Amino acid sequence: MKKFIIITLTIIMFSGLFILTPNLNLSVMAEDRGVLPFNTRSEGFLTDTNSSDRHTIILTEPGRVSININRSSDGGIPSSSFSGAYIRWLDANSVEINNAGVGSFIAGITFPYSESMDLEVGSYYFEIGRKSSGTGTYFIETSFTVAGVNINRPNNSIENAQLIMPGENVKGFISYQNRVDFYRFVLTEPGRVSININRSSDGGIPSNSFSGAYIRLLEVDGIEINRAGVGGFTAGITFPYIGDMGLLAIGTYYIEIGGKSNGTGTYFIETDFPNSITPTTTLSPLPTTTPEPPLPTTTPSPPIATTPEPTIAPPTTVAPPPPPPPEESPPPPQLPQTGVQNVKSILSIFGIAAGFTTIVVCILINKTNKKCITNKKI
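^ thats the sequence. predicted structure below, dont judge the formating
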C-alpha cells in the first residue's frame, strides 16, 4: 500500500511538472523580429531550426494592446493541436506576464487567435513558438487603444489617491501592472454619498464577471465601510454600477476600485453627494422659504379684505327689518277702531233686539190691540 501511494504521488508530481513547465525551446532560442508596428500585418515562419519568434512592442502611453494571429491556408501551423503553437507576453525584463498554449499536456492555441492586454507605458515582448513538431507560416497584426485617463497616475495606494470632487467625471485605468486605483473625497458636512461607475465601450472592464471589478469604501485609517463585488466566489460589479454608500459623517474617505482575477480595462467614476450639501441647503432654504410664505400670507390678505365686503353686504340686507316696525305700529290704532266698531255693532244689535222684542210682546199681549199696531206704526 505504501509503495502504491509513493508511485501515485510521483506520477502526479511529474504530470504537474509537465503541465506547468513550458516547452524547452522557449525564449532562449527565440529569434528577435524587431519592433512590431501597430495596424500592420506581418508574416512569420516557424521551422525546425527557428522554433520561436519574439516581437517588441513599445508603448508611450497606457492602453490596450490587441493581437490577432492566424495561419496560412497552405502549410500553416496546426490549430488547437499538441503540435501547434503557443504565445507568451513578457515585460522589459523578459518576465512572463501572460501565456496561452504553454505546457506539454496543453494543446496549442486555436487559429484565428485574438488576445488583448492592458499595459502601462514601457517596452514589452510578444513571443510565438511551436510546440513539438508544429511548424509553418503565421500572420500577426496588432492594434492599440489609448486609455485616455484624465487623472494623475499612478494612484494605486491611499498615499497617492486621486482627489475627486462631487459631480466630477473621471476616467480610470486598471492595467496588468496596476490592479487597483484609489480616489479621495472630503465631506465638510454629513451626508449621503453615491458612487457611479461605468466602463468604456472600448477596452472596458468586464461586467458582472469573475474577471471584472470590485469596489470598496474606506475611512481615512483604511477601515472598510462598504463593498461590492469583493471575494473569490463573488462576481464583479455589474455596469453601470450605482452604489449608495450610506450616510457619512464629516471627514475624508477613500474609494478603492480593483480588478478581479485578470480583470483590467478603462472605466468612468463619478461621485455624488446629494445629501451632503442639501442638509445645509435644506436648512437654509427652509428659513428662506419660511420668510417667503409670509409674502403669500400678505397676498391672501387682499382676499380677506374682499371677504369682509361680502359680510358688510349682509347688513344692507338686514336694512329691510326697519319696515316691520311700521307694520307693528298700525295694529295699535286698529285695536281701538275695531273696539268702537264692535261696541256700535253690539248697541245696534241690542236696539234691534229691543224693538223686535217690544213688537213681539205687544203682539202676544194684545193681538188685536190696534194701539200696539199704531204704536208699531209710530
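The radius of gyration is 56 Å.
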